[in-house]
Amino acid sequence: MRNFIQFLVKYHIFLMFLGLEVLCFALIFRNNNFHKASFVNSSNQVTGKIYSWKSNITQYIELQRVNNELSQENEELRNRLSGTFVNVNDHFVLINDTLRERKYRYKSAQIVNSSINKQLNYITIDKGENEGLKPEMGVVNPNGLVGVVKDVSDHFSTVIPIVNLKFTASAELERTGHFGLLKWEGNDYRFAELRDVPKHVDVQVGDSVVTRGASAIYPRGIPIGRVISVQNPDGSNFHKIRLELHNDFNKIRYVYVVENLLKPEQLELENQTEENAQ
Amino acid sequence: MLSKVLVNIGRFLLLIFLQGVLLNDVNLWDGMAIPYLYILFLLMLPIDIPRWLELLIGLIAGLSLDMFTNTAGIHASACVLLSFLRPIYLRSIAPRDGYEFGVKPTINDMGLAWYIKYAAVLIFIHHAWLFYVEIYSLSGFFNTLLRVFLSSVFTFILVILSQFLISKKKGSNYL
Questions:
Q1: What ipTM was predicted for this assembly?
Q2: C-alpha torsion angle, residues B39, B40, B45, B46 (rounded to 10)
Q3: CA distance A273 to chain B (A)
Q4: Fold of the domain built from segment(s) A168-245
Q5: DSSP label at B45?
Q6: Is the minimum CB–CB distance between A205 and chain B shorter than 8 Å?
Q7: Secondary structure of B63-87 as H, E, C letters
């Protein structure tokens, strides 16, 4: 006992160091679990506030470009308004359509902070739980897929973008319909990889890659990127496909958060099937 | 004593804020070199600070920055390592008669040659730990090593520059 206490006294600094490192790594691994809320992130009140001040200042610089993008999108949406179409056949009257049910709802949000130079990049947006955001909602913008909501606080949310080593999503080749796993390879925020596409699939440079909509997070067919190289490494059954992302993560300002209204139903059914199978 | 504490708290707030708002966005060659100037705060802690206190301060500084970068624990673990190793390293590079009482680990007090030896090694250790824990794998070992090296050089240059910037007056207490 005496020796033990002497040991503690002698090495107390080293033991304290070890204890603190264990604490840090516990935090790191806890945060590794996708979507587990943690107090140390920029959706917390203090850093969220600081980042929104910063964004208030810097957004003026990008106003011109953002305006152009918004007006382009307006133009596209206006072209879809019912007023721009004429009725070809006047015999039919539009009635409340019960055949269609709303599946996705979009909510616009502004990015208050983002990074591209790390391996674990995150985006902070200015909408949170008060606006109905929840973890695991998809995030898109007019150019294509952006990422998925990770944590939410009252007024802010953090998003895991494609350019984060922890990001994965199911994606498919639009032309052939085969799907694979979308992963970022680190280093360069303009490129990503599509893994697990079997070698027999005919993949061409220039093929476009879109979301598959399998996980009930994003709608199907949201553009992601374009194939720029296909390799066939020896000893593997899969292609090595490199994509150029449509989104330039260095200059995104506005995004839409997608809520899938039928997600609970889909998940419940899938869980039920899994349970019954056991 | 109290003024010393206040100066350190002020330096802490300033450097964490500067790092979180400005320097985290600075990067050269597509993220190969990122400056982490905030560890200047840990490098400038008094030489005779109790070791347990230094470890706690390292933890707090790291966690504060983690809040900005959404990387719970990663900066904290690197800062705790730095705070643990700094006193040991300080002892090993001490002048022959030890440190004079009240001397500060700055260029002003210790001279440029000593300071380069002091800052370069500690910055490199901190950055190496930070980048390898962040990527959490040894794949792309040399690529990460290059990032560590370039970022260390970047941080080191900023640390030296800021030392010259803030210690013009001999014996100045501020920053």
A1: 0.78
A2: 150
A3: 36
A4: Thrombin, subunit H (2.40.10)
A5: S
A6: no
A7: HHHHHHHCCCCHHHHHHHHHHHHHH
* A178-208 confidence digits (pLDDT tens): 999 999 988 788 899 998 888 888 888 989 9
Smallest Cβ–Cβ distance between A47 and the set B52, B55, B68 belongs to B68
Q: How far apart are CA B54 and CA B89, in angstroms?
A: 14
DSSP string, A228-269: EEEE--TT-SB-EEEEEESS-TTS--EEEEEEETTHHHHHHH
What dotted CATH number matches A45-74+101-164+254-261? 2.40.10.340
Test B71 with A119 for CB contact under 8 angstroms: no
Q: Report whether A70 contacts A151 (CB < 8 A).
A: no
Question: In this predicted model, what pLDDT tens digit does every residue of A21-40 receive, in sequence order?
Answer: 888 888 877 765 544 445 55
The domain locations on chain A are 45-74+101-164+254-261, 168-245
Q: How far is A47 from chain B (nearest CA, A)?
A: 6
* Separation of alpha carbons A137 and A263, rounded Å: 10
A20 → closest Cβ in B17, B80, B135: B80
Confidence of residue B78 (pLDDT cuts 50, 70, 90): very high
